[in-house]
Amino acid sequence: MTVLHNPNTHLTAKERSTPSLPVRMLHERQLIRGKVLDFGCGFGKDVDFLHQKGVDVQGYDPHYFPQYPSGTFDTILCFYVLNVLFPEEQNTVLMQISSLLKPTGRAYFAVRRDIQKDGFRTHQVHGKPTYQCFVKLPYTSIFLNENTEFYEYQHVNQRIDNQSKCPFCKPASRLHLLAETPLSYAVLDGYPVTKGHTLIIPKRHVADYFELTFEEQKDLVQLSAFVQKRIKADFQPDGFTTGMNIGKVAGQKFPHAALHLIPRYTGDCKNPSGGIRAVLR
């Protein structure tokens, strides 16, 4: 899936002499715990600050510190990154962060609240066009003033405030969450038909895929493309079958849309000829 890209996002990184307000405030509140990642760290001033405080922290920035993180983290920080990205790029960052966060971890996002209009503007120092936009996230807001807002994120299947009785609206905490966006999430199926069988599920309780909004459908496609790469790396399948059941006659058990991404392996069935066309045979 091709994602639009703004080549000058790195120009919005600021060289600061002091650590940012979000990192100082979160550190004072003792919310920065365990193994920490600063995602989109820019020049790394906040990473330096946390190092000095004895925190086990590393920084990642696709331009300034391009070594992509390995492993998972207890706390992930992402400050003023989303405001300079197109929507599809924002989604990619959110998927990356959710996939790097430990099951019981927390991620903290800071976004600007002083942006009046989305669009490109000429950078005062570099003289090149840079993009900025207003960002609102469906996560818990923990601080807000006229200039900035901080959010706390945790995996959808770890939230204790979710009282839904639908197993797709409230996925079990035991499930392995692969990645998440504001609109959908991907988990390893609890009853897989092959190794790596994954469900990509919209968060809104809708039974019929065709009743989802276009944005929700597009989100499912982007998330499925993201997790497919991970499944290929983790399980080395020889192919994939993907699809969904819509309605009881088609085998839909729960009235909540779900896209199945099923890795296929040589010899996993006697005769794979026909693929999905053979489902009625």
List keywords for this structure.
SAM-dependent_MTases_sf, 2 domains, AP-4-A_phosphorylase, Rossmann fold, elongated, catalytic activity, 281 residues, HIT-like_sf, Histidine triad (HIT) protein, single chain, HIT family, subunit A
Entry summary:
It comes from Runella slithyformis (strain ATCC 29530 / DSM 19594 / LMG 11500 / NCIMB 11436 / LSU 4). The protein is an alpha+beta fold and 281 residues long.
How many β-strand stretches?
13
Query: CATH architecture of the largest domain, please?
Result: 3-Layer(aba) Sandwich
Shape: elongated
The helix-and-strand class reads alpha+beta
Mean pLDDT: 93
As residue ranges, the low-confidence spans are: none
Helix content: 10-25%
Largest sheet, strands/sense/barrel: 6 strands, mixed
Q: How much of the polypeptide forms β-strand, as a percent range?
A: 25-35%
Element pattern in H and E: HEHEEHEEEEEEEEHEE
Query: What is the alpha-carbon Rg in Å?
Result: 21 Å
Given this structure, which CATH class of the largest domain is correct? Alpha Beta
Spatial strand arrangement across the major sheet: 2-1-3-4-8-7
Q: Could you state the CATH homologous superfamily of the largest domain? A: Vaccinia Virus protein VP39
Q: Remind me, CATH topology of the largest domain? A: Rossmann fold
Distance between the termini: 33 Å
Per DSSP, the total helix count is: 4
What number of domains? 2
